[in-house]
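Annex B. Sample input.
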Amino acid sequence: MLPAEADLIIDYFHNATPAFLQSLGVDRTRLPPRETWRTHYDREFGMPVEKRRSFLVLWTLDDTPVGFSTADKIVMGEQAFMHLHIFGSARRQQGHGAVLVLQTAQLYFDALRIKTLYCEPYALNIAPNRTLQKAGFKYLMTHETIPGPLNFHQPVNRWLLSRAQLHVQV
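Annex B, continued. Sample output.
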């Protein structure tokens, strides 16, 4: 993702309906102001990948942005946690998710030199859980937590993909 494209993420959350945010496990009151968020992303993009706290990937189909993935909780050379989002309901449930997730996983494994990739979607949000299963992630457990700074306390499903598993999938 290019620095200017990070506004797509900011808009995705700030323009979402309360019901949609709830379905993602996001607490609207925890969204940073747009300028604060933009400053954060500008700072992240200004650092070498090895020093970033997050890594952003824009998904496109036919040169049109259709969604994004972010990685955080990065331990270079070891592990990271990924998040996945598709823009607009018309783009969801079309079968692109698993392919996009696998391509992004490969990018994370290479760029972050990690061995393990985790994803912890809201347990009550069926779509990302199905997508991770289709992409070959292994279900580990369900637990309750606040998975990130935008989220409320919730049950999440922890999924895992190792570098070795990825090569079997691709």
